Fold this sequence. Notes:
alpha/beta; Rossmann fold
Amino acid sequence: MTDWRPDVLGDEFEQLTLELGEDDEGPVVATLVRALPGEQPWWDLRRWGSALRRRPLNDVDVLYVHGWSDYFFQKRLARFWTARGARFFALDLRKYGRSLRDGQTPGYITDLATYDEDIAAALDAMGRGAEGASSTRRLVLLGHSTGGLTLSLWASRHPDTADAVILNSPWLEFQVASARPLIAPVAELQARWAPREVAPQVDLGFYTRAQQEVADPDDPVETNPLWRPAQTMAVHAGWFHAILTGHATVAHGLTIDAPVCVLLSSRSATPTRWSEDLTRADSVLVVDDIARAALKLGTSVTVERIDGALHDVFLSRHEAREEAYRRLDRWVRGWSAVG
Length: 339
């Protein structure tokens, strides 16, 4: 479990393969990527100042989980944490990104709780034990979209483990919330009798185009199109039922005992045809529904709405991106000060 090797992101990033046994498609792995805070040079005067002022998060571990049809590639997000002293880890779940193997169905899962194995392996590799609590360091869970749903459910099932949960546009509710109870029984039947049945592709690639339109040359982001295609990966009936089950669980209320911060765009836009409006809104989720669902995560929830943000608030146009990092910094500093 100590065979860390250089990661595809280069620079200060390393990766570790986590063996997870086998399923009906063969060997299964997850991949943990890490970035550690660098040593400060002896001549840096801040080195001799208060440790809390110099690096307020030097007792913090961050575990990031990506969204659907995605993987970890956000260098700046990692550096936000390491610059403050935290150890940053990102998990490419089984059958995603670095963890996808030949012959596997990308992203396929029939129960989100299966990812407990991936998370347990990651926490163990981070030196926290498989349950995550065998450490004096504080644990921050950071999830985007489907990863936000997965981590929310996990945190609710594992009390007294996470010290904070930060969610970037978490997929907490179906895009047509009122239709979920009607769709769920049909989805359950499909998942039972034809779990690998593929739904028609409805993604026209506009979300990817929006990210390209607002790309900041001073904050470049590069992705692997094999791991993050312009149009989402195929949606299978078994996976879709797992998502709806997760949404229903959130709707009934979770019991996350750590403070939660939810970052969202201020509004949504429907991606039926291309328009410039899609570069200033979340074209994936109905953010008002997500904001309401977020209040059912636990007893301490902060919702931050960011004007002009995309679905991934940290990939938005320059002004919204900077605002997202300012909001994150403000919340983290407040949390850390009282934690």
